[in-house]
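WARN retry 2 of 3 for item q-0093 after timeout on previous attempt; input resubmitted unchanged.
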Amino acid sequence: MAFRNAPLTRQEWRRLLAVCVAALLSGMCDSAGPAAPTGTVLMLAANPTTVTVDQTSELTVTGSGPFGNPLTPGTQLRLSTTLGRLSAELLTADRQGRATATLTPAGQTGTATVTVVFEGGRSPESASVQVTIIALLRPPVFTKDFAPATITAGALTTLTFRVDNTANATSTTGLSFTDTLPATVVVAPVPNAATNCMGGGTLTAVAGGGAVSYAGGTVVANCTVSVDVTSAALGIHLNTTGDLTSSAGTSPPAISRLTVLPAP
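OK item q-0093 returned
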């Protein structure tokens, strides 16, 4: 039996000799290369077991022999995965009988099943662990504007809320926000409320009311919510929404200004 890696201590040699002598006598010892008895149970752990596409999961292989002994130092192990990329596929057990590697998502999402076996197929023993790879979600960019941004008293302007989800590879659902308008700005007599967000959602804008709310929509890349508003009060009106909440997290409030000038 040939051993690789760093030299063993005298105590480790004695323990190894005792284990292999006992295993050979009972017909449980492999004859090729550094090997664990065929009754060895492999164990594979992942930390963490759920990662986003920009994270990694640390894989640790250990083993327990028929006499409770760890993997023999130098034992070679073969890793494989159904998804993502491994930092190494051929591993060697260290002096503590452990071997480690890293799983990188490599831009893929789904469930990666990582499996470890003894190199060369000298033992039927194997172990596996699953790592869930999820998309990296960033809260959408939430903005708003008045068009036109300057009106005369009593004229109409269209208030448009914009949701930019292009930073995410997947759709963002559950869009929800409320915009309490400045006290001197109200929803127009004919609101013309509209949205092109997927699923429609629920858009509430009551004529003469002081608030606009939206809930339940989905955005793939970009979408908008719009409503006509008006004001008879001269001056600059600062309008700040509440947060935009969604399946991707919370986006900060959107801010815009409306300037109202005297009518001719």
